Amino acid sequence: MPVLQRHKQGLYCPAADAWIDPSWPVERALITHAHADHARAGSREYWAIGQSAGVLRQRLGQDIKLHSVTYGEEFTLGQATLSFHSAGHVLGSAQIRVEVEGEVWLVTGDYKRCHDPSCEPFESVKCDVMITESTFGLPIYRWESGQDVAKNIHAWWTAANERPSLLFCYAFGKAQRVLAELKAIGVEDEVLLHGAVQTITKHYQEAGVDMVQTRPVSELDRKDPLKGRLIIAPPSAYRSAWMRRFKEPQTAFASGWMTVRGARRRKGYERGFVLSDHADWNGLLKTIKESEAKQVYVTHGQDDVVAKYLREIEGIKADPLKSLS
Ligand SMILES: [Zn+2]
Ligand SMILES: [Zn+2]
User: Fold this and answer.
1) What is the SS3 assignment for 244?
2) Could you tell me if 181 and 192 are in contact, meaning their C-beta atoms sit under 8 angstroms apart?
3) Distance between CA atoms of residues 291 and 294, nearest Å
4) In the chain, which residues have pLDDT < 50?
5) Partners of 165 in the β-ladder
6) Ligand 1 center to residue 110 CA distance, Å?
7) d(Cα 90, Cα 173) in Å, to the nearest integer?
């Protein structure tokens, strides 16, 4: 029997009688990280990295039954030995290693290889079978360092001293990475936050992540024109009633998808910053090779392209995850 099986609900480990990132309520859920497509409400018990507890409880309910684990800590469920290893994706994100009768499978969850001052760095884990994400699995995706992107964001913001600068990005992970990267390049100014970004940033502050000073924009006088200020907001606030408060703001979006110029134009943002919390093409290949996996399953995004490339160019046994049953 394979160590992990793919079902509609997610990945199931029969030896542990546990699911990884299930999309439906189950008895035992092992959670790679607190993003909504990985962590769903309704399961009876959860296992996750302790640093993700704040965001998980905020999203799934304060009273969930949560077993907090630390990176590298081994524990047993049924016949399986499990451990969580840093994925470098967001605060508390993990890859999950599952060992049954000497065979090691690894589920990467979402991960990245670039340095990110807002979370633990990625840890390379050896395994027999690897299930890797491939969100940005095309050679056009190559990331600049977060520091360089932060310098560009800072230059864009400070060049506009007569207008407020509205930067849109995901509220959990991306926003805090921007705040930490700005701090790392020596920015001293305060950054204003939309309420949804504020709530998540609080959990990062509690975890001791070093970021620039922040304040909820709601605390400022509504008549304040906010000239020369940087405000970070989630994409859902773009063109919303909330945005009417700002007079002639300049707007930008920060995401890995900004690599594709069409995406930027369609949405109407004036500026796009390429900043991703997923591995780029080189990061994916490097990680797959370092794992020394004998079989790789690819999921999310460019699964077919990456699997074909691995088979034909790298000589690695690889298939899209959808072929696993
Ligand atoms: Zn994620
Ligand atoms: Zn994801």
Assistant:
1) helix
2) no
3) 9
4) none
5) 230, 250
6) 5
7) 5
